[in-house]
Amino acid sequence: MSYKHLLVAVAPTPESHHLVARAVSIVKPVDGSITLITLASDPELYNQLAAPMMENLRELMLEETHLFLQSLKDQADYPIYDTVIATGELSEHILNICAKTPIDLVVCGNHNQSFFSKVTCSAKRVVQSCSVDVLLVSL
Which residue of 54, 106, 107, 137 is surrounded by the most CB atoms within 10 Å? Predict the structure, then answer.
């Protein structure tokens, strides 16, 4: 079976380059497309900061997320069709994108770091609920 459009859940870690490389190896032979999705960091997690600084922190974290996605795109050696920065529950966004877009395969990593425990939980929910194939890549 060939997959034409992959949705790849990435996190700001070096391992995400491995996920993108895996996705490229799957779609390149069929001239398919790749969409990247990641979670934006929530500055409310850092509640010791003063409220007026939150907006600046939010903007800074969003900019860092954009830079991270651009880095993945630059190093992919393959055109990336789209990027999505989500907030909240990642699995909800993945399932929603799969319902609205012709995604053939969702690619997730099994990040075991505390910040990425959301991604691990999301992958479990995606595997259970997704109407398309899911590839879990060991990182």
Answer: 106
